[in-house]
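Translate sequence into structure tokens.
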Amino acid sequence: MTQRYIPTYFAIVFLLTLSAATAQSLQREIKRTSEKEVKVRINSSFGSVNMEKGSTDKIIEVYYRKKNRDNKPRLDMDYRIRKDVGDLEVELHPGDADVETSSSGEVNVKVNGFNFKPDQWYIKLVQGVPLSIKAELGAGKSDFDLTGLTLNELTISTGASSSKVRFNEMNKGEIGELQIETGVSKFVAENLNNANFRKMTFEGGVGSYYLDFGGELKRTVDVNVNVGLGAVTVVIPKNIGVKIKYEDSWLSNFSIDVEFIRKKKGMYESENYSSADGRMNIYIESGLGSVKIRRSK
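Result follows.
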């Protein structure tokens, strides 16, 4: 994917600023203009990706710190605006990666050798504009601090990685379905109820997963958790009413805090499920591994 001229019938702003502070760093940004919302797609094949809120006058700021002097990382950004909706694509890849995009939009990345250290990418996204984010991350690390952003959609997919996602404040938007899919990995999510979702789906492959549903909840939400081979811990504040349906398997180990009442095989409820302002209906399926349900203060 390359930067290209877009015909004038699109309203376009695409400003790239190069920082020559050192030979090992690069910064690019896109200024905000008339956007009423922005769709963001981020694809990273290898590296450390860090995301947080930025300013109100820049759609995106991307900065990378180079770890390998022999290979310059590949950063491609494509941005266009149509009918006040921004469409942003960001590609983050190692310097020796061969990136191919099919006619259907599928990205295939081939890396010629693995003798390099992962680059560190830092992304800041605009405040005050509704965002739809789809992030596809390969091998490496990621740290998404989504506090302060306005999110209407969020989909995160990770490969062999160590990932963290957190919402330290209530999302200013509303997410219809929060989707997270992770492979061979360690995954930590904090204050998920601050994401302000109506439905959440979590798919885990092989790894360790920690899902903290702290935050504010004033309605009923549905959560589906499906884990193959791994250990998942689900933490829910005591003020939230919870109903849990667990798909039992003799290959997995299930433990739950004593305050939950067993209604029947594979079905549990908290004592305050009927009276709580916020309720969670959680469906959990586990293949081979362990599931722990815990209460927090």
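Note: The chain has no helices and 19 strands.
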